[in-house]
Amino acid sequence: MKNTFGSAVSLTIFGESHGPAIGAVLDGLAAGLPVDGALIAACMDRRRARGDGLSTSRTEPDQVEFVSGVLEGRTTGTPVTLLVRNTNTRSGDYAKTAALLRPGHADYTAWVKYEGFQDARGGGHFSGRITAASVAAGAICQQVLAGLGVQVYTHIARCAGISDAPLPGGDALPAEAPPGHFALIDPSREVPMQEAIRAAGAAGDSVGGVLETVITGLPAGVGEPFFDSVESELAHLMFAIPAVKGIEFGAGFRFADLTGSTANDAFRMGADGGVVTATNRNGGVNGGITNGMPVIFRTVVKPTPSIYKEQQTVDFPAKTDAQLVIHGRHDPCIVPRAAVVQNTLAAFGLLDLITVRYGTLAQKHGLPDR
Amino acid sequence: MKNTFGSAVSLTIFGESHGPAIGAVLDGLAAGLPVDGALIAACMDRRRARGDGLSTSRTEPDQVEFVSGVLEGRTTGTPVTLLVRNTNTRSGDYAKTAALLRPGHADYTAWVKYEGFQDARGGGHFSGRITAASVAAGAICQQVLAGLGVQVYTHIARCAGISDAPLPGGDALPAEAPPGHFALIDPSREVPMQEAIRAAGAAGDSVGGVLETVITGLPAGVGEPFFDSVESELAHLMFAIPAVKGIEFGAGFRFADLTGSTANDAFRMGADGGVVTATNRNGGVNGGITNGMPVIFRTVVKPTPSIYKEQQTVDFPAKTDAQLVIHGRHDPCIVPRAAVVQNTLAAFGLLDLITVRYGTLAQKHGLPDR
Amino acid sequence: MKNTFGSAVSLTIFGESHGPAIGAVLDGLAAGLPVDGALIAACMDRRRARGDGLSTSRTEPDQVEFVSGVLEGRTTGTPVTLLVRNTNTRSGDYAKTAALLRPGHADYTAWVKYEGFQDARGGGHFSGRITAASVAAGAICQQVLAGLGVQVYTHIARCAGISDAPLPGGDALPAEAPPGHFALIDPSREVPMQEAIRAAGAAGDSVGGVLETVITGLPAGVGEPFFDSVESELAHLMFAIPAVKGIEFGAGFRFADLTGSTANDAFRMGADGGVVTATNRNGGVNGGITNGMPVIFRTVVKPTPSIYKEQQTVDFPAKTDAQLVIHGRHDPCIVPRAAVVQNTLAAFGLLDLITVRYGTLAQKHGLPDR
Amino acid sequence: MKNTFGSAVSLTIFGESHGPAIGAVLDGLAAGLPVDGALIAACMDRRRARGDGLSTSRTEPDQVEFVSGVLEGRTTGTPVTLLVRNTNTRSGDYAKTAALLRPGHADYTAWVKYEGFQDARGGGHFSGRITAASVAAGAICQQVLAGLGVQVYTHIARCAGISDAPLPGGDALPAEAPPGHFALIDPSREVPMQEAIRAAGAAGDSVGGVLETVITGLPAGVGEPFFDSVESELAHLMFAIPAVKGIEFGAGFRFADLTGSTANDAFRMGADGGVVTATNRNGGVNGGITNGMPVIFRTVVKPTPSIYKEQQTVDFPAKTDAQLVIHGRHDPCIVPRAAVVQNTLAAFGLLDLITVRYGTLAQKHGLPDR
Fold first, then answer.
1. Is A90 helix (H, G, I), strand (E, B) or coil?
2. Helix, strand, or coil (residue A259)
3. What secondary structure letter does DSSP report for A175?
């Protein structure tokens, strides 16, 4: 199923950038779970563009409208459908360049796949705007996880050549950034990072970065050995974020140059009588299954393909070489806004895996002790 | 479905290291496709351990036995079931350390997940041996792809600190390594790589590496925008390979420090009237969909967790700290053997995506021109 | 996935009777397929209540609003999302009887399943109103099938004790009933049928019936041997229609008293050089796969459980025996309105099976000759 | 997935009648569940042919061989794979009639679907023999259900024109028939039923019948509103049994001529403080969800298509009209042997639905009180 993912909890996303709305169907939630609109709105706000030279000047309130599955602030147990209206669309910007394929974008692949019938306005179904729906749905999942003692946190590990401080060890998570600020462990990196992004934008260019997510409070035993490993499920979801081109768990690509004796995480008896690992190079996952340590992964987000510099391309379907100068409103960097997309999709993925093991009812009644 | 993956073509894998056999069910193939046993045997041979100080001394012929779905060398259209018998099992080796959790392995997570009822002999269902079944199934898929003009190639990009030569540009693939040799573009790297692996093994340690896969001959338009993107499907499958901890497409994690103008692949009209890209930093995928350029990805394979050096661990379920010295037969490096696993699973994943778009019959009758 | 069904084409339905809207997501359509709003509206009109003593006095225009996937009258290839607004809701009617379980309804099972958090207004997610969304989605599928030469027709085989004329033999289908009329082969049965329904309604009671569907123009070879047989897929879908309690294919339950020699359909060479069967007692399906003859099935629709006669029931969660008198607006018979629900869901099911075999592109470009 | 079904618990079946073995993969079971080989053997024995004029003279011991997922009599939590060897194959019988399509069989549809590459020996993948694998897998599910207090029972409601006694009311199930005997509530019907079957066989003909299944001990709240209703899931599975052409729940097709007041099941407070229904015309399911009363359904099984009487058919691919006289070994009636197939597939279906709601671990630790 092309736009639907998940086993016990499933997510379907739909919509086009310049259509009436984008939205999502989230199915498989227990009934009676609280849905806190303010928490969802806070997530939507983190994804929102601000027109401040860091993100596109297309700013929209992104209010989440529930069509089904939520009544008086609680889930009803049936599919939760939500819409986010598209209110600030200027398709004229795109008409000028409609025939010129934008490098790094899906213009060409969409044309071939949909034989010219795709909705090309504003990137259509390929627009980063579609992620707003997954943020709203994932924000609900994150609330459910919080009720089970599972916390999800994502920060900008690197952006525009500037790195954030590393994750603290242990189960303690950094504080969530205040509204309107970048998701950083070290807030002092924000101003230099923003200046580097603005400089790239001013040069008609764009920059990329790395997002890092950590999930704590997970019971051991979640996930499956092969095809439904924690890594498989999370990677599947993260590559659904436009611009993500890589993912690594724990030590990730650094494993290539480690040895077994420097890579293995020694098991030790923990303070509370449980089993822990002395290090966490495996990112909380052994054999595809959570081991009770924090799950840690990083993705790479490529630079926004929409840049104002002139580029070589092709006029299609005329099929001639051409030069492209992009107009319209674009982010010189989507990394800061993508953080909450990654965070909420990770919440969805883990809620699905937890539900497979413990059943739908456990979402509301809690995980058994075993 | 925990051990089943795929949409139009699906793969189910099963078995334990010391059970009677491991195997796979491959469903969704058209009828009448040739199944060349020699080609399958060649793939099995590449995965086979050789007892040469580079891989475990547990060597088995790994003959593939067809139980269903193949008649007189051709698919019948119904599920292809295959078994690989376990012939060389020495469970005694494992009994000695059964209560001591092996760091970096799934011993602990399996115990929690299966509440002590897992088959722990030789790693059970978590053994790398299970991948033999996916190699056999994927080798069939690779044959089907070859009939459609699609070629899949994987080499050891880096291992034990030694890198292979880079991929040649264009659609030309390096030659497949001769039987018994490492999958390398530059054969002169084999001896130093083997020496480095043997040195690690002699030190009671192990090493990791990076595998790189390239797929050529793909039509543009394969894959789906979000959850079934080419990257999502391939990443999902690659993380089903034990020890894989990261994956990146095209420029991958290098995108973090690129700019839009250095990251975008300019479109150009190709020699044959088709659209090509001047560079291929996106690894052949835009918006989750193939663009007709080679699909390129790399995975990182962590060092074999089974090492002979003494390690700290826990006696479980006794729940006391302990020291572990592993006996048994283990690879000081699984990267060379994992290459064919990655190659065949990639073949399976692409055959699935191609079948979604073109239908089951196209596997046999070819892809339409459009 | 609870509210999603289908392999190559998938349908997700959502909504509650008294929520803002009900709707559907239809995914897996090729791009460029015409979407004729007038044909959809005609299907919606057939399902619509008329407040004429035959159906509930809750009448709504049931306009279909496209949220995504359709642009300028054609599919874009991405998920088609549609909404039908709920405009005529009178929840007060239900508040009176909220604690009294309505016999034959899902009041009790919903309460247990959703632990009291279900949306109980107007039957919530269990209302027959939800089928409006599947009619709209299925109507699009029916148009796609028509473009492939496949026709779907459903009539009221029996209702309120009165039977319709039997299906004509061969590939010729009866004419579709004019707007506002019952789906009958013999229009002269309409008045007596309506009188019998009105008489039941006037007595505070309700009646059931049998719906019969025939699909012509199907190629042989569609469907799968076991779990995805044509019968399995269609039965799965038909039991998603509230009130359907049985389904039979071809001779159906009459097979119980036939012999092999009276049950088998002899194969014969047809006029056009193809293989046909002399009779069609197997309803066009052998071994789960279409044989090229018309696919024929019948469902039984139980009498509307909402009746005005006093009934014994339980006050829940007070858990005491009680008497119930239902108010509100209800159909004395849903069979006539259910005909188009069955017809459009059957169209969806067959489009899915056809797409599995021939691929997404075949929806637009036609089925190959083989 | 064509030969795989199920959500939380999944079943994959494979094999051909004259291949080396048929088998199944059952995934999604908790670890540590007892697997009683004697109970499985008893189910296999009920499906076994006896060569007694009632069933085919192809008699095989049908021993179940576990390949994975079972260790020392308990599940390991990983996929359970089982094989049943084909030991008594006489393909020569079939060669004589290979080109003549057998009416009522899948010969023609298989040829078209698989373009002549199907394994036609003994019906290949379409043989009723494949059901032996689902019996073994379902027998395990039945044991798991029994541990949860859920009982499944199937009897021959009608066969060869002779009806069994009706089901007793309430939760008490009839006793299972002794080995070698028909599944009948009233054992006195066995001899006349057998005589009628033998008479049909002696006349070169065959007979059909009706199977009725009842499941008791189910908690209320299992199943989903629309596409995953209890009826949808069970119907999907039952139509995977070759020769089943209809299914009805509770009053089934009799609903067509009932009224709401004679069809509704009144709710009443039960002796133990729970809610019950005074009658059970809805077969234990309201709105697709169990209501705690016994789930009851009936299927119709068509007469065995293989008869010895001469039949009209077509020589294919020669494409000429022809006469067919079938040799080989065939059952004059498969209804008695199909009873255990239906029973065990029903057990599988319910275990899947229960697991969706309560999670995998509940299979072993029991259902919570709520």
1. coil
2. strand
3. P
CA A16, CA A118: separation in Å to the nearest integer?
10
Backbone phi, then psi, for D81, in 5-degree steps? -110, 135
CA distance D338 to B269: 63
* Token representation of residue C274: 């193809």
First to last CA, chain B: 34
Q: Which one of B357, B363, B364, B367 makes the best mutation probe of the C interface by having the most chain C beta carbons within 10 Å?
A: B357
What is the pTM (predicted TM-score) of this model?
A: 0.96
Beta bridge partners of C313: C322
The tokens for A297 are 């992964």
Spell out the SS3 assignment of D85-141.
ECCCCCCHHHHCCCCECCCCCCHHHHHHHHCCCCCCHHHHHHCHHHHHHHHHHHHHH
User: Chain D contacts of A357, Cβ < 8 Å?
Assistant: 359-361
Q: Are D27 and B1 in contact (CB under 8 A)?
A: yes
CA closest to D28 among chain B residues: B2
| Residues in chain C within 8 Å Cβ distance of D287 | 105-106, 109-110, 126, 242
Q: Whose structure tokens read 């959703």?
A: C114
Reduced to 3 states (helix: H, G, I; strand: E, B; else coil), residue B132 is helix
Q: For residues C11 and D227, what is the distance between their CA atoms, to the nearest angstrom?
A: 10
Chain C residues within 8 A of B7 when measuring between CB atoms: 7-8
The closest CB to that of B361, out of C78, C358, C365, belongs to C358
Nearest to D8 by CA among D23, D32, D24, D30: D30
ipTM rounded to 2 decimals: 0.96
Helix, strand, coil percentages (3-state) for chain B, rounded to 5, are 30, 25, 45
Query: Domain B4-365's class?
Result: alpha beta
User: Which phi and psi angles does C233 have, rounded to 5°?
Assistant: -65, -45
Taking alpha carbons only, the member of C103, C13, C133, C163 closest to residue C309 is C103
Residue B361: partners with Cβ closer than 8 Å, 6 or more residues away:
B30, C357, C358, C359, C368, C370
Are residues C14 and A25, on separate chains, in Cβ contact within 8 Å?
A: yes
Is the previous residue joined to A317 through a cis bond, with omega within 30 degrees of 0?
Answer: yes
* B-chain residue closest to C224, CA distance: B78
Amino acid sitting at position A168: P
d(CA C304, CA A174): 57
**Residue indicated by tokens 């001013």:** A202
**What is the rounded CA–CA span in Å between residue B140 and residue B161?**
33
CA C363 from centre of chain: 22
**Distance from the A147 Cα atom to the nearest Cα atom in chain C, whole angstroms:** 17
What 3-state DSSP class applies to A128? helix
DSSP string, C288-308: TEE-SSPEEEEEEEPPPS--S
CB D151 within 8 A of CB D123: no
Structure tokens at A253: 């690509």
> If we measure between CA atoms, which residue out of C313, D37, A236 comes closest to residue B226?
A236
Q: Which two tokens stand for residue C270?
A: 């047809």
Domain boundaries, chain C: 4-365
Kind and range of the H or E element at D67? Answer: strand D64-68
User: Measuring CA to CA, how many Å separate C315 from each of C13, C106, D195, D268, D290?
Assistant: 31, 14, 53, 9, 19
The DSSP output letter for D232 is H
Per-residue pLDDT of chain B in tens (370 residues, 90 and over written 9): 689 999 999 999 999 999 999 999 999 999 999 999 999 999 999 998 777 777 776 666 789 999 999 999 999 999 999 999 998 766 555 555 568 999 999 999 999 999 999 999 888 999 999 999 999 999 999 999 999 999 999 999 999 999 999 999 877 899 999 999 999 999 999 999 999 999 999 999 999 999 999 999 999 999 999 999 999 999 999 999 999 999 999 999 999 999 999 999 999 999 888 999 999 999 999 999 999 999 999 999 999 999 999 999 999 888 999 999 988 777 899 999 999 999 999 999 999 999 999 999 999 999 987 5
